[in-house]
Amino acid sequence: MRMLCLAATFLAATAFGAFGQGTEVAFGQSHDASAPVEITSDSLQLDQAGGTALFQGTVRVGQGAMRLAADQVKVFYVAGQAGQQGAVERMEAEGNVTLSNGTEAAKARRAVYQVATGLVEMEGDVILTQGPNALSSQKLNIDLNRGTARLDGRVQTIFTPGSTSAPARSNP
């Protein structure tokens, strides 16, 4: 099972603070999907018949250097395999969602991680940061397998000239 995760590497390509509708950035470069996953929360509701596990209250998920924090995380298991390791279909994080890896982090209202495809979708007031650089948008799509991400919905940036981060690519 891989954790919903994030690693962002970027720098704005222009000094004007705003991109077009879509911006691509490097992402997920140091994610180790084979590392053990640890989840802690204030409570857990397990529904074996429905194939779900609901972690609530100060939820923390860790895998290697990657971290996820949220108010709640619901895990959906592949039909007929509830509770078996490696049988996770998707994870949905709600409320104050933060994904981080060292100095890189993304915040949003909601995130969904599709385990089989390695795709993560974050939405709702997304803020993506790496050190002193930041990007904001309404939606962030991450492909952990390719190590890329795409921001959509009125992308704006703040960056520090002279930063060692890789440039973002804007797609109008």
Automatic annotation (TrEMBL):
<feature type="domain" description="Organic solvent tolerance-like N-terminal">
    <location>
        <begin position="38"/>
        <end position="147"/>
    </location>
</feature>
<feature type="signal peptide">
    <location>
        <begin position="1"/>
        <end position="20"/>
    </location>
</feature>
<dbReference type="GO" id="GO:0030288">
    <property type="term" value="C:outer membrane-bounded periplasmic space"/>
</dbReference>
<dbReference type="InterPro" id="IPR052037">
    <property type="entry name" value="LPS_export_LptA"/>
</dbReference>
<protein>
    <submittedName>
        <fullName>Lipopolysaccharide transport periplasmic protein LptA</fullName>
    </submittedName>
</protein>
<dbReference type="Pfam" id="PF03968">
    <property type="entry name" value="LptD_N"/>
</dbReference>
<dbReference type="GO" id="GO:0015920">
    <property type="term" value="P:lipopolysaccharide transport"/>
</dbReference>
<dbReference type="InterPro" id="IPR005653">
    <property type="entry name" value="OstA-like_N"/>
</dbReference>
<keyword id="KW-0732">Signal</keyword>
<dbReference type="GO" id="GO:0009279">
    <property type="term" value="C:cell outer membrane"/>
</dbReference>
<dbReference type="GO" id="GO:0017089">
    <property type="term" value="F:glycolipid transfer activity"/>
</dbReference>
